[in-house]
Amino acid sequence: MFAFIVRRLIGLVVVLFAITVLTFLIFFATPGVDPSRQLAGRNPDPATIAAVKHQFGLDRPLPVRYALMMKRLFISRDLVSYGNQALKVVPAITSAAPVDFSLVIGAAVLWVIGSVVMGVLAVTFKGSIIDPLLMILALIGISMPVFWLGEVVNLVTQDRLHDTFLFSWVPPLGYTPLTQDP
Fold it and tell me: Are 27 and 35 in contact (CB under 8 A)?
């Protein structure tokens, strides 16, 4: 049993290492893409590009760049996203984690309840005309992109029909923690 756990842990480390290397190569070693130009913003001058290359170590060999990136990610935690503003990545992710987890838990509860209801209905009406209709509905639900479905549900329940008696219990657009009333 101990050997099995050790093999699994070694496999976990190898897979995580492979994923980090592959991700690093996609973003920082793709031919024809200069990450320093992307990090420097719109229409950067050559001095800004050189400064960004030096700051992020992009003027060093590829293994050194990988080591610097992993150090920034796991040790110093000072990754910066340069878009409209310089944004610290790790604090932004950790501050959004409670919101993400509550949304995932809420979606999982709805998914389980919906799945159980659909399963009970399919068993109850097995062999009738309702059975294939439930199968088609389940197939559509599985095939539909979740982000699109979420936007459509938001538009219907929180915008257009929010004032009706059917959806008045749905909170308005925005996030409200589970510990607070909407």
Answer: yes
